[in-house]
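User: quick one, sequence for these tokens?
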């Protein structure tokens, strides 16, 4: 039914994949009955874009047991999980815990995880739509004070403290806007809007991604800092990708990497690191298009660039070789090469990933690969490890989709219903 409806619209598989935020390989496997569609949210998306009534699509499913009927649509105002502790990656206790989590993913029995609190992007929405964000009381509106505010915002993102970041970011943007002269203010404002765009990506707020990315780029151009402009272009590329314009998104990132390479103002190590991040983003988008050759070429170039610039990782993006490896993992997944992705994941030490955000993202990517591979127990282990590393990461849409699929294994996966609830699903 999916294949026939797609063909009637004259779409290639990559177009349908872009509209429902899946890979071309995933669509191909679904249409050939290689893998089932286990998420009601994904079925709803298919229903909407293909113009098939949801009951009709559900009736065509092989069996009712394959569809988690308790799943619900993600609300417009996405909510995220509770706080994480300090982000010191070299803490020995945290290192042992993370290694234990990694061992669970690949070899050990299942474990439990902790619940999280909720928050919202309402303060950021108010700033973007109405310009209402007061400068925090007793704020230091000086270059040093605003620099400290930008650093604090980055630390919240790296520690996956998304609720705190969503609450404090609007005031910090207002604080940066109050700084004089305009060039210094503009660069700080752009840095904060870049962080805001990354936050909106995490929370699946695609409309806000486009707005924050646009504001970041406009402010970055006023400030004139090459690295901030490059990161803003990366956010713009991500916004285009999330709207389904994959070729355009790839081109934006590649061109920005080329422009940065030709810029002689920024120090070479940080320029190379930022360039590697742009190329890795372009590789991810090319893989989402199903363009295997371009994706592998770009991720290879990103790795070479990161190795050349790894002495000084770019502070704006946490770019570096580890970041490229995470993108390479995603590239394998998007191209349908789950086995290769897991082989790569086994070579990555999660304790070497410098932030909680990266650690959580790593385990979620591993979970997606196991889900694609049809291994629910390993998928669940990886999701629990992600929750352990960064509790608020599990409120992402991809996690909800996987949790919905895992509900049909609730008898063999202890605690999976509770996990799905913590991920934001309504469980009856």
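Assistant:
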């Amino acid at each position: 039914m999916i294949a026939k409806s797609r063909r009637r619209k004259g779409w290639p598989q990559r177009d349908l994949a872009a509209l429902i935020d899946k890979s071309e390989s995933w669509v191909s496997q679904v249409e050939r009955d290689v893998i089932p569609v286990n998420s009601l949210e994904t079925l709803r998306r298919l229903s909407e874009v293909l113009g098939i009534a949801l009951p009709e699509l559900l009736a065509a499913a092989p069996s009712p047991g394959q569809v988690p009927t308790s799943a619900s649509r993600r609300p417009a105002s996405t909510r995220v999980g509770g706080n994480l502790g300090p982000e010191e990656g070299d803490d020995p206790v945290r290192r042992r815990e993370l290694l234990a989590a990694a061992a669970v993913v690949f070899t050990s029995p299942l474990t439990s995880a902790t619940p999280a609190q909720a928050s919202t992007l309402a303060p950021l929405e108010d700033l973007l739509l109405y310009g209402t964000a007061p400068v925090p009381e007793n704020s230091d509106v000086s270059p040093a004070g605003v620099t400290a505010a930008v650093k604090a915002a980055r630390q919240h993102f790296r520690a996956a403290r998304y609720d705190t970041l969503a609450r404090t970011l609007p005031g910090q943007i207002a604080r940066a806007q109050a700084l004089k002269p305009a060039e210094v203010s503009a660069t700080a404002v752009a840095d904060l809007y870049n962080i805001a765009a990354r936050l909106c990506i995490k929370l699946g707020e695609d409309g806000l991604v486009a707005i924050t990315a646009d504001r970041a780029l406009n402010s970055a151009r006023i400030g004139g800092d090459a690295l901030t402009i490059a990161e803003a272009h990366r956010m713009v590329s991500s916004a285009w990708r999330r709207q389904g314009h994959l070729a355009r998104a790839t081109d934006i990132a590649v061109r920005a990497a080329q422009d940065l390479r030709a810029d002689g103002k920024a120090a070479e190590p940080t320029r190379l690191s930022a360039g590697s991040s742009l190329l890795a983003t372009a590789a991810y988008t090319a893989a989402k298009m199903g363009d295997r050759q371009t994706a592998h070429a770009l991720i290879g170039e990103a790795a070479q660039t990161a190795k050349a610039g790894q002495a000084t990782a770019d502070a704006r993006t946490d770019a570096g070789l580890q970041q490229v490896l995470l993108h390479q993992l995603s590239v394998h997944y998007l191209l349908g090469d789950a086995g290769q992705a897991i082989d790569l994941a086994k070579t990555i030490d999660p304790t070497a990933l410098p932030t909680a955000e990266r650690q959580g993202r790593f385990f979620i990517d591993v979970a997606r690969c196991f889900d694609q591979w049809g291994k629910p127990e390993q998928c669940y282990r990886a999701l629990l490890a992600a929750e352990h590393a960064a509790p608020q990461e599990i409120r992402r849409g991809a996690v909800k989709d996987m949790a919905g699929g895992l509900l049909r294994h609730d008898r063999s996966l202890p605690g999976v219903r509770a996990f799905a609830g913590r991920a934001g699903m309504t469980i009856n």
